[in-house]
Amino acid sequence: MNAEILFSYICSKRSYLCIGLDSDEEKIPRCLKEFEHPVYEFNKRIIDATIPYCVAYKPNLAFYECRGGAGLRDLELTIGYLRKHYPDIFLIADAKRGDIGNTSKMYARTFFEYFNFDAVTVAPYMGEDSVKPFLEFKNKFIILLALTSNPSASDFQYYTSKENKPLFKEVIDKSKSWGDIDNLIYVVGATKASMLKAIRKQIPAHFLLIPGIGAQGGDLNEVAKYGLNRRCGILVNASRSIIFAGKDENFAARAAFEAKKLQQQMEIILKDAKLIL
Amino acid sequence: MNAEILFSYICSKRSYLCIGLDSDEEKIPRCLKEFEHPVYEFNKRIIDATIPYCVAYKPNLAFYECRGGAGLRDLELTIGYLRKHYPDIFLIADAKRGDIGNTSKMYARTFFEYFNFDAVTVAPYMGEDSVKPFLEFKNKFIILLALTSNPSASDFQYYTSKENKPLFKEVIDKSKSWGDIDNLIYVVGATKASMLKAIRKQIPAHFLLIPGIGAQGGDLNEVAKYGLNRRCGILVNASRSIIFAGKDENFAARAAFEAKKLQQQMEIILKDAKLIL
User: Fold this and answer.
1) A105 carries an active-site annotation
2) Which end of chain A has a smaller Cβ tally under 10 Å, C or N?
3) C-beta separation of B216 from B240 below 8 A
């Protein structure tokens, strides 16, 4: 996996949608409870219904770990299903890990080797030696938190230096030399779309993973206006607004409907930007 | 669990040692490979041998997650064994989590409810709303990363404001009002022992979790000199230097030997500080 392949997925799906599989067991429809692995069953149906409209899935580790080994088994089954049936898809572990070197190496092996993800989200607080072990894996991406979409992002990410530079910009400046566009992506929240302009000056060519559309209120056109580059360069994530759009037997159809709505907006944006015909 | 109970453990064990269970399957002695759960077997024997010398154990999640469900099963068995046989012990999940609110809540449930830990390490980058969900659990601690012991800690933790204040101090100042001494502990690396003096001015009463002794080179007396308060106020962690001190059948005895050496130094320090008789 590299940036060129990711762009080819975007052109072929006419979409840069990433769907977050925050598959909370308590929120999945009752009709699935009779299955041996209800969460896996939920994911499988969401995937089958939404695969035409997205280029990436992003399981959120918290929603699997919270049930210990049984939860991780659901995650393994989900990844296995995707790899078998839909090989041309970008798989992101939303794990936000970050620890000292030998521990980060173990987390990298967990997500890249054991679970076979293409990418993992990583927190920057502990610095380069906590990030590098992930970058040593070939054909894999790390997705580094820069500016997140939650209200308290401002607590520390805006911490400002003498030179009037907020921490999140320092994170980008310092880290961009650790990898390149083929193994390093940044998280930039959609709730701060106007900031994308300045971030694009710092890293014109990197892909950005943009959460905060849907449940968190970000705007797709704003994001495109400031975030697009000549290989698209953005993945926009939506989680709950898609996977929990329906509550009953109709959940997969409702998810497909919501995903398609976003895909259609993205197709227009990609056409307007002349990235697809 | 609260700070008073933790101090009572310290007085009774005459130790403030925390042992990190970074139980890398590839490093555990061959003689354990025949067991059904070699990593659990390893932990059990390490625990039985070292329990007289420590007040806390700190499994490092990376070393369990890397084997998926089987690894988490080893973790569950280890916690279950500790809770059954040694109820008076402080159990820390070294997980360094941190995500938006609803995800952090799920991580909190994972470590506090599903696994029954007393405490979990949390990364501050995403700010208050990523930390608060952990603090809502009664009788549990979060252990927030402030100043870590790895070489690249300086990349962002020393990022300095106009007022010449490094980020790690801002993390402490801002977060200390989110909780209190009974639910909030800070990670401060032993490799920066002299900085403990200034940190003690910021947070005189909080417990600190201090990694970096042993394999990472920190000094126990330096740490005590600057870190001790009137309820001890420090937990010093050692992981690999204890659990992998021996490589053969002697591994548990060697671990006990190394743990006892640290406990004896700690006993002298605690007596000198008149915290125990």
Assistant:
1) no
2) C
3) no
Which chain B residues have a beta carbon less than 8 Å from that of A73?
68-69
List Cβ neighbours of A131 (8 Å cut-off, separation of 6 or more).
A98, A104, A122, A124, A142, A144, A175, A178
Residue owning tokens 């794990």? A95
Q: For domain A3-272, which CATH number applies: 3.30.450.20, 3.20.20.70, 1.10.260.40, 3.40.920.10? A: 3.20.20.70
- For tokens 């992002």, name the residue: A153
Beta bridge partners of B144: B122, B186
The secondary structure of B45-65 as a DSSP string is HHHHHHGGG-SEEEEBTHHHH
Measure the CA–CA gap between B153 and A100, rounded to whole angstroms: 9
Instruction: Tell me the pLDDT tens digit for each residue of B176-189.
Output: 999 999 999 999 98
ipTM: 0.95
Let me know: does A262 contact A53? Beta carbons within 8 Å: yes
CA distance A150 to B275: 43
| Cβ atoms of A261 and A17 closer than 8 Å | no
Any B CB within 8 A of A183 CB:
no
Please report the pLDDT score of residue B231 as a whole number: 96
| pLDDT one-digit tens code per residue, B22-74 | 999 999 999 999 999 999 999 999 999 999 999 999 999 999 999 999 999 99
CA A157 to chain centre: 19
For chain A, domain boundaries = 3-272
Residue of chain A with shortest Cα separation from B60: A103
CB contact under 8 A, B170 and A159: yes
Q: Which of B68, B145, B156 sits opposite A72 (nearest CB)?
A: B68
Q: Residue A170 corresponds to which amino acid?
A: E
The verdict on a CB contact (< 8 Å) between A69 and B67 is: no
8 A C-beta contact, residue B54 and residue B19: yes
Cβ contact, residue pair B103, A152, below 8 Å: no
Nearest residue to B148 (alpha-carbon basis) of B236, B211, B71: B211
| Cβ count within 10 A of residue A183 | 20
d(CA A230, CA A14): 15
- DSSP assignment of A53-97 equals G-SEEEEBTHHHHTTHHHHHHHHHHHHHHHHHH--S-EEEEEEEE
Query: For residues A165 and A199, is the Cβ–Cβ distance under 8 A?
Result: no
Question: Nearest CA to CA, how far is A218 from chain B (Å)?
Answer: 15
Report the distance separating Cα B214 and Cα B273, nearest Å. 23
Q: Which residues of B are less than 8 Å from A237 in CB distance?
A: none
Q: Is the distance from CB of B179 to CB of B142 less than 8 angstroms?
A: yes
Question: Which residue is catalytic, options B96, B105, B176, B225?
Answer: B96
Q: How far apart are CA A82 and CA A50, in angstroms?
A: 12
